[in-house]
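User: quick one, fold this
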Amino acid sequence: MGTVLNAFHVAVTSNPEAIRRAARACARGAPERKFLDGVGALRDGDVDGAVRLLRQVVKRGPADVAAAAADFLGPIFAMRHAHDEVFGVAGVLEAGGWDASASVFRAIAAADRGERKAARRHCDAAERALLSDVDPVVELRVLQRIARTAYFLGDHTRALNLAIRSARAAEKLGAWHPAAAAYSVAFNVYHDVLEDFTEADRYVRLFRTAATKTDDASLLQPALVAEFTVAVQIGDVERVPKLERQLRSLCLPEQFQENYPLTLAHAMVLGATDLPAMRTVLAVLRDTGGRSRAQSALCGALIALAHAARRDDDAARAELQAAISGLGRFSVTEPAYEQRLRRLTRATVAVACDLLGDHVRAMRTLDVREVGPDRGIRELARGAADVEPGLRGMQRVYENARASRATNEPPAKLTDSELEVLNLLGRGWSAGRIAQETGRSVNTVYNHTRSILGKLEAARAPEAVAIARHRGYIT
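Assistant:
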């Protein structure tokens, strides 16, 4: 058992070159050598080769070496949602005496199948098994896996505590791979659930530092993506361009290029200075398959904001209506990340409505259950100078939109509301319909119309429309 654990320690704590050296030091044909060869292939990115080699160890090696190999096979099968394979791995681990590892893989498979009670029961069994004399490297891997499972089960306090405990234990042993995986769980809890962006930023830096020490691009890439998105959200203007350069140098694979948070972050960076470019990126992002309702709605709301900033009001209204309709009904069972996107959509719609002069609709947009008592979102939408850290990136986009709208002053000293009414009069709408569609009273529409007539020196509304079209004020 000592020889097997030595090989297992090398596999968990060492970089790819050290793993290869350890494999060459084993006797040719020894199961420990094939095990290390399999882990080396995995670290080099040859997942299929790793699965082939580790399967051979599981089938032909002694129970203890088979268990070590199964511990590395389990996460691969879990990512592939191969539930039967994961349960098979658990059986191999149990046969080798790795009871805690066996229980946690059963928990992972049960959680992925939606069997929440069974998953919690297996997590509890894994923690109880750790009370026995368990190898410290095995223990930190089990803790990290319980933490990730607890996160997906919504037990976020347990996930956070176990993730931090696992990461600290891993650091002490120089096991940077499991340390990075554990820090990623802590980051997700602070970012997605608690929305504590100060702590999320701290843990994403720890995640990136640990991932860098692994010499494993498959870990470094998601760590950099996560750090970049946080830096954008908190408006860290010094760090964002540095991280952008690093991401470009990595040549991210397709899974990251189509990653919604990453592309949204890139769009927000553009939106702080170039709203049309932001709009183009978001149009492509929204049309990519697999988007949730909240993801698509936020893209639409930001596209509307870009239109409103350039005074393309008809296009802005169409996008706003689609964004709100696309949100659908709110449910408290939605993931925390989705709920945050919904609130950001509401804030963006409110800002765009204000730019269009629809102040009543802007207020109504925020006066809904899903926004509730979220003061941060309300302060963001009304243009407060100081907003919560995680909203500062979006604040920069809103500030640019407001400034862009202001630089394109309405013609003939018409106010935004008057120009809106004039556009709708140009469509042949009655005062009653304008009032109904814009949330104003009929008297307010009449007052706007009288002001328009005076400013354009027109006797009646059709004449004012003709003058405005001749001068290019409306189309």
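User: anything notable?
Assistant: The radius of gyration is 28 Å.
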